[in-house]
Amino acid sequence: MPLDVLVFYGSVRHARQGIKAARFVMNCLRERGHRAELIDALQEQLPLLDRMYKEYPKGEAPENLERLATKIRSADAFVVVSGEYNHSIPPALSNMLDHYLEEYFWRPSAIVCYSAGAFGGVRAAMQLRAMLCELGTPSIPSLLPVPRVQDAFDDDGHPRDNAFPARAARFFDELEWYAHALGEARRAGMPY
User: Fold this and answer.
1) Is the pTM of this model over 0.90?
2) What is the DSSP string of the chain?
3) How many CB atoms are closer than 10 A to CB 120?
4) Domains of the chain, each with CATH number or no CATH
5) Which regions of the chain are under pLDDT 50?
6) What is the structure's pLDDT at 90?
7) Which terminus of the chain, N or C, has fewer Cβ atoms within 10 Å?
């Protein structure tokens, strides 16, 4: 059954390389028959967090916050593509995710992490895992780390290592399982 998946990408740096990993994720999700949409912090241009979406009176949130809230509420799952900045996540990613809360509830998330070095961003992923759980979108157990992201994909997100898609398949299988399981549970009723 096709899923609606939002792919959050949070780097706004000049000559950013992680966008290649985000494109890889989008390509994989679409090849698996899912509807995927990239939510790019650079394109969204959300303001620095002053008020969360839920803190605006109904109908008074800025248009870009309202539009994104609608997309988040209608998604079945989320994939968060995060670089590692000083052993943590990019500030633009944190800012983008923090604008919302209840909109994420009861839907799984999955973490694709990357870095320019050999560790593939896993230190940032550990902090992101705690954050996503607190936002109400618990991350699946598997991670998809991408070491040396600048060399891992071409500009369109096609991997340069032919074995990479096979390694990623388990990650996407797991996300699909959690998305379907939590979808059934949501349809049966939420705890509050």
Assistant:
1) yes
2) ---EEEEEE----TT-STHHHHHHHHHHHHHTT-EEEEEEHHHH-PPPSSS-GGGSPTT-S-HHHHHHHHHHHH-SEEEEEEE-BTTB--HHHHHHHHT-SGGGTT--EEEEEE-SSTTTTHHHHHHHHHHHHHTT-PEEEEEEEETTHHHHB-TTS-BSSTTHHHHHHHHHHHHHHHHHHHHHHHHH----
3) 23
4) 4-188 (3.40.50.360)
5) none
6) 96
7) C
Q: How far apart are the C-alpha atoms of 36 and 78, rounded to whole Å?
A: 9
Residues 96, 7: contact at Cβ < 8 Å?
no
Residues 77 and 58: their CA atoms lie apart, in Å, by 25
* Nearest-angstrom CA–CA distance, 57 and 53: 9
Q: At what angle do helices 122-134 and 91-98 cross, to 10 degrees?
A: 10
What are the structure tokens assigned to 46, written together? 């959300």
Structure confidence by residue, pLDDT tens digits, 119-172? 999 999 999 999 999 999 999 999 999 999 999 999 999 999 999 999 999 999
pLDDT on residue 43: 96
Query: Residue 113 and residue 136: Cα distance in Å, rounded?
Result: 20
Residue written as tokens 């096709």? 2
Contact (CB, 8 A) for 77 and 178: yes
Measured CA to CA, the distance from residue 73 to residue 70 in angstroms comes to 5
